[in-house]
Structures are given as structure tokens and as C-alpha cells.
Specification:
Blueprint: H1 14-27, H2 32-35, H3 41-56, H4 63-76, H5 80-90, H6 97-105, H7 114-128, H8 136-143, H9 148-170, H10 177-180
Helix pairs in contact: 3-9, 4-5, 4-7, 4-9, 7-9
Amino acid sequence: MSWIDEIAVDEADGKLAGIYDDLVEKRGKVANILKVHSLNPAAMQGHLDLYMTLMFGKSGLSRLEREAIAVVVSANNDCDYCVNHHLESLRRYLDDEETLNLLATADGLETLEPRLSNVVRHAEKLTTAPGAMTESDLGELRAEGLSDRDILDLTLITAYFNFVNRIAMGLGVEFSEQEMRGYLDD
């Protein structure tokens, strides 16, 4: 649910019904962040294609790193919807409550293992102070073994979650325990 009209899964037809059907088949259900796009199926499809490429496509960034970026960016933007959704996903890759809490609060990130720390602190800086980014910021990532492609993916994922956080917060996309659970495994 959100602050704007949405077309329910069982009321959709045409292109929207096809997108919904594909989501249910591949992911088990349709997330509220996608339902909010239902009035513009072409935008929903573009959003979904970008999400699947960035979060599940081939990359030198692990799924854990990608979900950690999502959580840290969303925590910095105070986007409860995305923090909760992606923290739930991150639990599939990380069984350490202390680290999960650090990521969910975007606090103490410098205490994480070096590669993850550098990745999420870079995402945090790009989110909170994009004008302060310098070429030297990339050197720290390269020192941790990230390739230029990995750095591109990190930047794209960070930008994507800044975009999505604003959709969720700007349209009042709601989440609940039930809505966060039940997605098919990655």
C-alpha cells in the first residue's frame, strides 16, 4: 500500500498482468515497491530490469556486499522499507547479528572486515556527500581488490538505492513483516 492508487495483482490486465505473473513465478510474490509502479507498467519493467541486473547479475561484488550496500544506503536515507527488506535478504548471507546491526544503523562501519568496510563506507559517502567524492576514493577500493567494473557496480547499486529510497518515502510505500517474507530464494 502507498499514498497513491495501485492496481492489485488480481485486477491487472495486459502488460501489467504479465509483469505481475512473471514476478510471482520468479520471486514468489510482488513487493510493494513494485506495486507502486502499477499505474506505469513500462516504468515498472524498467525498474525491475535494472534491479535484477544490479542485484542478481554477474558482478565481482558478492550478493552479501550488494545487500549490505542496499542496507547502508537505505539506513543513511532513513528508508525503513528498504532497510527492512534488504536486511532480511542480507540474513541469507550473513549470520552475525552484530554486523547486521552495524549495517542497519550505518554506524561503526569502519570496524567491519576491510573489504566490506571500504565498500559500504564508499556507498555511504556517495549517498551523504556526493560532492565530496574524489578520484582518490577509488584507490581505497582498488587496494581491497575491486576492479573498475566492481567500482561501477558499487556506484550503480548506491545510486539505485538512493533512487528507490525516494520512491518508497515519497509515495509512502508501506511494509509489514508479512510483506517482507515469503520471497523465493535468490
